[in-house]
Amino acid sequence: MTAYAIAHLRPAAPHPEVFEYIERIQPTLDPFGGRFLVHDAEVEVTEGSWPGFVVVIAFPDLARARGWYESPVYREILPLRTRHNDADVVLVAGVPDGYDPAVTAAKLRAAAATG
């Protein structure tokens, strides 16, 4: 099941180390099947506030997303970004093929009725 690394990066002053991080990240993703879905795109806020940028990287599964984030090669370049950008980063599994939100609603409704 596809998994995602999602980052919310807050605005920061441009820095050469961040440019280097961006230049070096793709080779860290390749062994884990990671690919950018969203990167350097303008955010259109429709509810609430969202100061900054969003990055979404897809992986074949959560194990490979975790493997990438914990890999020595990624950990080597990570400080190039974290020294200069505040961010929230999460790894999350996607829904399976054929996912039906009505089934989830029914489970939540049943749990609320008994809890």
List the helices and strands and how they pair.
Blueprint: E1 3-9, H1 16-29, E2 35-38, E3 53-59, H2 62-70, H3 72-82, E4 87-93, H4 101-114
Antiparallel strand pairs: 1-3, 1-4, 2-3
Helix pairs in contact: 1-3
Pfam families: DUF1330
Domain DUF1330: 2-95
Protein name: DUF1330 domain-containing protein
Which tags fit this structure?
alpha+beta, Alpha-Beta Plaits, 22% strand, globular
Would you give an account of this structure?
There is one protein chain. The protein is of the alpha+beta class. The chain has one domain (3-114): Alpha-Beta Plaits (2-Layer Sandwich), CATH 3.30.70. The protein has four helices and four strands. It has helices spanning 16-29, 62-70, 72-82, 101-114; strands spanning 3-9, 35-38, 53-59, 87-93. α1 (16-29) runs antiparallel to α3 (72-82). The longest helix is centred in the N-terminal third of the chain and has 14 residues, at 16-29. The protein is globular, with a radius of gyration of 17 Å. The model has no long low-confidence stretch (mean pLDDT 96).
Summary of the model, kept short:
With 115 residues, the protein is an alpha+beta fold. Helices cover 42% and strands 22% of the residues. The protein has one domain (3-114): 2-Layer Sandwich (Alpha-Beta Plaits).
Question: What name does the CATH topology carry?
Answer: Alpha-Beta Plaits
Per DSSP, what share of the residues sits in E-state strands of 2 or more residues?
A: 15-25%
Distance, first to last CA = 30 Å
Number of domains: 1
Task: Indicate the overall shape.
Answer: globular
- State the order of secondary-structure elements, H for helix, E for strand: EHEEHHEH
The CATH architecture assignment turns out to be 2-Layer Sandwich
Low-confidence stretches: none
CATH class: Alpha Beta
Summarize model confidence as the mean pLDDT.
96
Q: Tell me about the biggest sheet?
A: 4 strands, antiparallel
- What percentage of residues falls in helices of 4 or more residues? 40-55%
Number of helices: 4
* CA-atom Rg in angstroms: 17 Å
Q: How many extended strands?
A: 4
Q: What is the strand arrangement across the widest sheet? A: 2-3-1-4
Alpha-beta content class: alpha+beta
